[in-house]
């Protein structure tokens, strides 16, 4: 009898974030708190449906929309709405046709197709992520074939950013190095760069010819929609080429719909045409084209002034709820009580390469 082709398959470690849900569901205590995957829940443990999202979804379902295939890059209405949210209604980049945006399967999917695109573009480059960082950053870029290293970020004594060490490290990197940056609400520390520090990072990226890749998972949850886009807009004004992975999982409470986007900023409109053609090839060999429902809801909310106003109020309400809740886990994340250490972003056998 021949042995199974799967006989040599080893058991993969449980995902360090999503795997906690299994332990949470198995726990019978009424006082339990889920500190695993980042999902906003109300006092009853339910994920609230934002009013603007509910209205847009109701209108969409009543219209009995078509169920055909989307364009590979997603619908234009969605892509344009994403661009305006990130770069501003009057962005010169948008007017010049220098932004390529494609719908993606959440923020994770945006990072994945961006990593795959970059591997084709510059296979010899190294990727640098903050120490610590979201655990899946390393796995995503390693799965694309990149070597991933850390740059210093968290300063335990001050419970803030060790900017001097970060700046010195970035200034030593080779041209073409890919730098993954948290645009706001740094995960897991909550320690963000100031406006002046962001300006210095932009200058270093320009001087060293680095490739910035901004991860924008929490726009609207720190200081507001436009304020949280500061880093993106500073890079936009720098005339650099860069990448932005954005997500609506948190801001629209559409976690299971996997609504994200990858935006690539080019040097000219003709470059955008060529970049989009290659990005579509990456997407086509990953998942062919994106789903309809979640993106249609987001596009409807962002393109309607009334719904957009309601959406901004909803985001603000969620942000206030985060900041005023009494959970010990949140209190520890506030500046005066941040923990002095976080799990490292360095390679670990406990880290699963499975995307969240």
Automatic annotation (TrEMBL):
Highest taxon of the lineage: Bacteria
Q: Supply the alphabetized keyword list.
A: Aminotransferase, Pyridoxal phosphate, Transferase
User: Do you know which InterPro entries this protein is assigned to?
Assistant: Aminotransferase_I/II_large (IPR004839), Asp_trans (IPR000796), NHTrfase_class1_PyrdxlP-BS (IPR004838), PyrdxlP-dep_Trfase (IPR015424), PyrdxlP-dep_Trfase_major (IPR015421), PyrdxlP-dep_Trfase_small (IPR015422)
Is Transferase a UniProt keyword of this protein?
Answer: yes
A GO BP term, please? L-phenylalanine biosynthetic process from chorismate via phenylpyruvate
Q: What is its EC number?
A: 2.6.1.-
Report the residue ranges that make up the Aminotransferase class I/classII large domain in this protein.
31-304
**Gene3D superfamilies, sorted:** Aspartate Aminotransferase, domain 1, Type I PLP-dependent aspartate aminotransferase-like (Major domain)
**Cofactor(s) this protein requires:** pyridoxal 5'-phosphate
- Disordered: annotated span: 337-356
- GO terms for cellular component: cytosol
The molecular function terms of the Gene Ontology recorded here are: identical protein binding; L-tyrosine-2-oxoglutarate transaminase activity; pyridoxal phosphate binding
Question: Pfam families, per this entry?
Answer: Aminotran_1_2
As for family, the record states:
Belongs to the class-I pyridoxal-phosphate-dependent aminotransferase family.
On assembly, the entry states:
Homodimer.
Q: What is this protein called?
A: Aminotransferase
The species this protein belongs to is Chromobacterium violaceum
Its taxonomic placement starts with: Bacteria, Pseudomonadati, Pseudomonadota, Betaproteobacteria, Neisseriales
Q: Which gene encodes it?
A: tyrB_2
